[in-house]
Design a protein that fits this description.
The protein is an all-alpha fold and about 375 residues long. It contains 18 helices and no strands. α6 runs antiparallel to α13, α10 packs antiparallel against α18 and α14 runs antiparallel to α18. The radius of gyration is 22 Å and the shape is globular. It starts with a helix and ends in a 21-residue tail after the last helix. About 40% of the residues are buried.
Length: about 375
């Protein structure tokens, strides 16, 4: 029900939506999933370019709506304490990404039907839950926060009322811009390695598909598993500290990845086969696992570190999410023009430079619970 409430947050920050918008908003998630499911059923069954392009566009649009809505909801509900729940949210994302290449290998053309079945199941669950609980009541005060909202939400849900959260100032512009630039570069590099490492291994390094599939699997296994360490650490360490460490680990891994793939490419060009690269492949898998560990906390911790400076308006949140999704979009096509190792090395250097050029706002160490970071009022 909280998800249904949030869907009107942007409208509520500017004007009151009409009654029909409130009625339809409760089915937003289910509707996006059903649209995505319909396109997934169409893609393997048509060869018409216009239909394929349109279907992929709608799939991407639905994913963007679902991902952005869920992310903003978590940040809005938990505020400055969003680091831990955001890590759990990203863990679910990483688990699906780890399973994806194996689902394609095992199911082949039926993989699209499998995705459609999953989306249909989730959509039906959400729709049934919405019909069972009915439309949300007093949704405007709930999404705007405050003591009255907490009491109303508690009465509706049966849980004790949440403590009143003091109003925070706005995030400074320089912090928002730094976070936006960081996430654009970071998501470009992360999406590149997660989407293109299989293709890079199978083509440039001439690895069998079964071996190449271990590359994105290693990345996402570490990307997901490292959260078992980061989640408890996030209750003890400031988010900016974890982001700084993750950025440094990512830079080290990207440098090793570039050096290792350069030597492997030389062997392949000399006529070597994957049998001659067994040891290097093991090192490459370990390198991608290290990269996944470094990349793992960045999305959640940068968002949490920004919220240490203040709150984000709906418009600021929209710009931040736009930069994140533009980074994902860039990562989808950039390795097709520039070799993957160069993309990863450039991305790692970029995020390291951004975060350390704003070390005052994203410090290596800051006492948790501090009311304000240095310069946050500027």
């Amino acid at each position: 029900r909280k998800t249904c409430l949030w869907q009107h947050e942007v409208l509520a920050s500017r004007w009151d939506p009409p009654p029909w918008a409130v009625e339809l908003g409760g089915f937003g998630f289910a509707f996006a999933l059903m649209c995505k499911m319909s396109c997934e059923l169409l893609i393997p069954r048509t060869i018409v370019p216009a239909l394929l392009y349109s279907a992929y566009f709608m799939v991407g649009l639905a994913i963007a709506l679902l991902d952005t809505s869920a992310y903003v909801l978590v940040g809005r509900v938990h505020g400055k304490s969003c680091a831990r729940p955001m890590m759990l949210y990203c863990a679910a994302y990483g688990t699906g990404s780890m399973v994806a290449p194996w689902a394609v290998i095992m199911l082949s053309d039926r993989a699209w039907d499998f995705l459609a079945a999953v989306d249909c199941s989730v959509a039906l669950f959400l729709a049934i839950k919405r019909l069972s609980y009915g439309k949300p009541r007093d949704w405007k005060p709930k999404i705007r926060g405050g003591t009255a909202a907490g009491k109303t939400a508690a009465e509706d849900s049966g849980y004790p009322p949440a403590a009143s959260v003091p109003s925070l100032g706005r995030v400074p512009g320089r912090v928002l811009r730094a976070g936006m630039a960081f996430m654009y570069v970071a998501e470009s590099a992360e999406t590149s390695v997660s989407n293109w490492s299989f293709t890079y291994g199978a083509t440039e390094l001439a690895l069998p598909s079964e071996v190449a599939a271990f590359l994105p699997t290693a990345f996402y296994f570490s990307f997901t598993g490292t959260r078992a360490i980061v989640v408890p650490l996030s209750t003890r360490l400031p988010p900016s500290t974890i982001a700084q460490v993750g950025t440094l680990v990512t830079l080290i891994a990207a440098t090793l990845f570039y050096m290792l793939t350069s030597s492997m490419s030389a062997v392949v060009e000399a006529g070597g086969t994957h049998e001659d690269l067994r040891f290097q492949v093991k090192l490459l898998v370990s390198c991608l696992a290290l990269m996944g560990a470094g990349t793992c906390p960045l999305f959640a911790m940068i968002a949490a570190a920004m919220r240490q400076h203040g709150d984000l308006s709906a418009v600021e949140q929209g710009w931040y999410d736009t930069c994140t999704n533009l980074g994902m979009t860039t990562g989808m096509w950039l390795p097709g023009l520039v070799s993957l190792p160069k993309v990863e090395l450039a991305g790692a250097i970029g995020i390291f430079a951004i975060i350390n050029s704003h070390v005052r706002d994203f410090p290596w160490w800051q006492t948790q619970g501090a009311a304000e970071l240095p310069g946050s009022a500027l």
